[in-house]
Amino acid sequence: MRASVTGTKAASQSRTSSAAAQYIKRSFPIYLMVLPGLLLIILFKYLPMFGIAISFQQYSPFRGIWGSEWVGFDHFVRLFTEQQFVTLLKNTLILNLIDICFFFPAPIVFALILNEVRLRWFKATLQTVVYLPHFISMIVVVGITVILFASEFGGINQWLDGLGLPRYEGLNDPDHFRWIWLLQNIWKEVGWSAIIYLAALASIDPTLYEAAKMDGANRWRQIWHITLPSLTQVILILFILRLGSFIDIGFEHIFLLQNPLNLAVSDVFDTYIYRIGVQQGEFSYTTAVGLFKSVVGLVLVLAANAIAKRSGKEGVY
User: Fold this and answer.
1) Is 35 in the same domain as 148?
2) What are phi and psi of 226, to 5 degrees?
3) In a domain, 317, yes or no
4) 156 and 268 fall within a common domain
5) Which CATH number does the domain housing residue 77 bear?
6) Is residue 315 part of a domain?
7) Does one domain contain both 9 and 158?
8) In a shared domain, residues 174 and 81
9) Which of 68, 92, 134, 186 has the fewest CB atoms found within 10 Å of its own CB?
10) pLDDT tens-digit map of 223-276
11) Quick one: 134 and 199 in the same domain?
12) Mind listing the pLDDT tens digit for each residue in 158-170?
């Protein structure tokens, strides 16, 4: 009897291992395709997380992580009591709110407009033209802006001088900095960001539109009652993920536009980290600043996901 049970278990295990081997063999190309991205995430996202320890140390490159002196939360106390903290937080929050209010909806609106275009050649051409700026380096984008609007040698200002009109000093005007930054973001990324919304629109069952037409719904009604509800889940997930970088507004673009005249509105945590950490070598302190940003982003994602779940929607997890 025991031998029979043992034989049955062995046969079951053999079938399970055989099925697992067949599954791995069948899925091997997919795993191989995922491998480079997985290695990239491990090497550049997870392994560097061990460096968070230096935010609680007075780190010295000569002593290393294990030999540096532990100072606890001293760097965080310094951050929150720093005179610039309020300015950095205000500038970061304002830029992020502008980004969420104006840039985040822009790809959605573009995808909805493009979805209504019926001429295929015009739709394809428009998609290509709007996608292309994504592949242009931000350095080039800012360089073109400077060439056009620089105070002394800018092409637009020289043209305005020739017409006897006042110069445009937008690059040096703190009141214009945020809107120039926003418009450049929209011009460069709105087409690329719309791809996921266009994919979601392509998955909508066309019979829904046909039924709506039979009920007498015009295009606006179809968009409002069919298209937008079909995009709700995608919009919600992307919005929750966007909150994860709410304090992390980005370095390159702001740094390229930044100058002493607009520093009061353009100085954010990322440029502050570069100035204090890279230029002045305060690695432990700026690591603490980066950890603060990450914790805020994590809390916002968890809170937004919990609210979405309680509202009956599907969250990120």
Assistant:
1) no
2) -120, -55
3) no
4) yes
5) 1.10.3720.10
6) no
7) no
8) yes
9) 134
10) 888 888 888 889 999 998 888 888 888 888 999 999 888 889 999 999 999 999
11) yes
12) 887 777 777 777 7
Sequence-ordered alpha helix ranges (H) in 72-194: 74-81, 85-98, 105-116, 120-131, 138-149, 155-162, 174-193
| Whole-angstrom distance, CA of residue 13 vs CA of residue 17 | 6
pTM of the predicted model, to two decimals?
0.82
Determine how many CB atoms are found less than 10 A away from the CB of residue 198: 16
Domain tally for the chain?
2
For residue 204, give its domain range.
73-310
What's the average model confidence in pLDDT over 90-101?
93
In the chain, which residue ranges form alpha helices assigned H by DSSP? 2-41, 64-67, 74-81, 85-98, 105-116, 120-131, 138-149, 155-162, 174-193, 195-202, 206-214, 219-222, 228-243, 252-257, 263-266, 269-273, 283-310
Here the tokens at position 73 are 């939360």
Tokens encoding 206: 């066309």
> Of 25, 53, 72, at which residue does a domain stop?
72
pLDDT one-digit tens code per residue, 214-223? 888 888 888 8
Q: Whole-angstrom Cα distance, residue 139 to residue 51?
A: 29
pLDDT confidence of residue 21: 77
**In a 3-state reduction of DSSP, which class is residue 275?**
helix
- Residue 178 vs residues 82, 262, 291: alpha-carbon distances, Å: 24, 10, 26
Given the structure tokens 């991205």, which residue do they identify?
37
Return d(Cα 20, Cα 28) in angstroms, integer: 12
